[in-house]
Amino acid sequence: DCIEISEGYSAQDSISFGDLESWSAEYGVELWSYHLPFAPFGILEPSVKELAPKTVSYFGEIMGRASEIGIGKFIVHPSGEPIDPSDRAMRIEVAKESLCSLAEIAKGYGVTVAVENLPRTFLGKGSSEMLELVSAHPGLGICFDTNHLLSENPIDFIRKCGHKIVTLHVSDYDR
């Protein structure tokens, strides 16, 4: 009865938000969330200083169009990868600036940005890093992806971050 819209970067211009709204009404499926594009990393990257302004602006445009048809949650990856450990602190700071800007844009549309936890070398690979990222703005939430949580027990993650979780991604093979 709910769906997340997730299209790649190259498909964004061909999305008909009017069609999505019509189909949602026709089939009784709530447009629950919209996963903002997360690749290609060399073009879209909220944690790379040179790419962050363009990324934030582009994501803001999408949030504006999608919020007009009632989508209220926007999932964002805080980074691409790989991230060298020596660059991690700087990338976190750039990501926090981007996330703060996105949260302000979202506030203007009356919607929420949910930062997705990610695995491996991505930013957001555990509860402490997720809480650091969402501390950038009080309006930021967390999208808890159970399949991405490789470094921590899911129950511990929920205990620490549960107050900020606004949506879930649960994979069939996680059950």
Description:
The chain is 37% helix and 17% strand. It contains five helices and six strands, in the order E-H-E-H-E-H-E-H-E-H-E. Helix 2 packs parallel to helix 3 (88-109) and helix 4 runs parallel beside helix 5. The protein starts with a strand and ends in a 6-residue tail after the last strand. The mean pLDDT is 94.
Main sheet? 6 strands, parallel
User: If you compute it from the alpha carbons, what radius of gyration comes out, rounded to the nearest whole angstrom?
Assistant: 16 Å
| Number of helical regions | 5
The best one-word shape is globular
Helices and strands, in order, run as EHEHEHEHEHE
Termini separation comes to 20 Å
Average pLDDT figure: 94
Portion of residues in helices?
A: 25-40%
Low-confidence stretches: none
The strand count comes to 6
Class inferred from helices and paired strands: alpha/beta
Strand content: 15-25%
Order of strands in the sheet with most strands: 1-2-3-4-5-6
Based on the model shown, name its key terms.
37% helix, 5 helices, 6-stranded parallel β-sheet, 175 residues, globular, single chain, 17% strand, alpha/beta
Tell me briefly what this model is:
With 175 residues, this protein is α/β, with parallel strands linked by helices. 37% of the residues lie in helices and 17% in strands.
Task: List the SSEs and their pairings.
Layout (H helix, E strand, L loop, with lengths): L1 E5 L10 H11 L2 E6 L16 H16 L5 E4 L11 H22 L2 E5 L10 H8 L6 E5 L8 H8 L3 E5 L6
Parallel strand pairs: 1-2, 2-3, 3-4, 4-5, 5-6
Helix pairs in contact: 2-3, 4-5
